[in-house]
Amino acid sequence: MKSSRRFFLISILLGVAVVFLGWFAFTRLRPYKFHGSLVPSAGTAPDFTLQGVNGPVSLGDFRGKIVLLYFGYTFCPDVCPTTMTDLAKAMQLLGKQADHYQVIMITVDPERDTPEKTDAYVKHFDPNFIGLSGTPEEIAQVATLYGIFYEREEGSAATGYLINHTASTTVLDKDGRLKLIFPFGTAPEDIASDLQHLR
User: Fold this and answer.
1) What is the count of structural domains for the chain?
2) 94 plus 142 within the same structural domain
3) What is d(CA 77, CA 73) in angstroms, rounded to the nearest whole number?
4) What is the spatial distance between Cα 147 and Cα 71, in angstroms, rounded to a whole number?
5) What digits encode the pLDDT tens for the residues 85-103?
6) CA 110 to CA 124: how far, in whole Å?
7) pTM of the shown model
8) Is 50 helix (H, G, I), strand (E, B) or coil?
9) What's the CATH number where 163 sits?
């Protein structure tokens, strides 16, 4: 009687162990599902040089870091400050690991956004963010390389003109390859999680 009871208990324990190991393997070994849109790698992303607050800055300067590239402008009433806030929160969630990432905002309003103004704007959200500007021709060329759309539209008498623009964030890996695109509104927690899995 005791032996059959012991066998029954052992069977239950083994069953529980098998279920637990199966669950562990499923959750730990299954492929990670990114929240951003994965981009099939087609080689190194186009390099460019624009003006930073301390002079020319090239994308290639950040090789070895994961770069988050965003096109926006300082007078943007809603989308840009929301995106910058979300990216800043993602960096906070990454903690010390944030040193492995670089957020860069390129203005799509070079007529109003000098390098100094653009850089001061992004540093309001995170002191490690970098803002870049350039001539209208330089900005248009870089935007075209990365598939960014923007156009000027008339605003109110108080605001002057506004700019409609692509609101996504482009992510490049340490080797400068295009890897992910975060659509506008991606949660900071999801951004941080995806970035950790790119390392």
Assistant:
1) 2
2) yes
3) 9
4) 11
5) 999 999 999 999 999 999 9
6) 19
7) 0.83
8) strand
9) 3.40.30.10
